[in-house]
Amino acid sequence: QVQMVESGGGLMQAGGSLRLSCAASGSIFSINAMGWYRQAPGKQRELVASITSGGNTNYADSVSGRFTISRDNAKNTVYLQMNSLKPEDTAVYYCNADVLRKVFGLQRRYEYWGQGTQVTVSS
User: Which residues of the chain have pLDDT under 70?
Assistant: First the structure.
């Protein structure tokens, strides 16, 4: 079993900053890509940012230049630094990991999600 525990969400005024963290733990052989998604009420879940095991990053157009994704491979942790926050960033943020595990001696790929953390940006 793999657990993904998120932290760092909260309330912030427009223009402020927040840093989200997500630590993976459990039976993990290795982690490929990790990412952050968000979902606002009545809207589809969307990709915010992703990062490969080699450090290559990808961002949604709406957050490009304001958000930065990073990871600490030794700690199996992914971060999302959010600057210049806007009310439109208000959503529940979920971390995601593409995990390789060894089950009964066989290597298998699984996808895991964090529990979600609320980010609310006021105007």
Answer: none
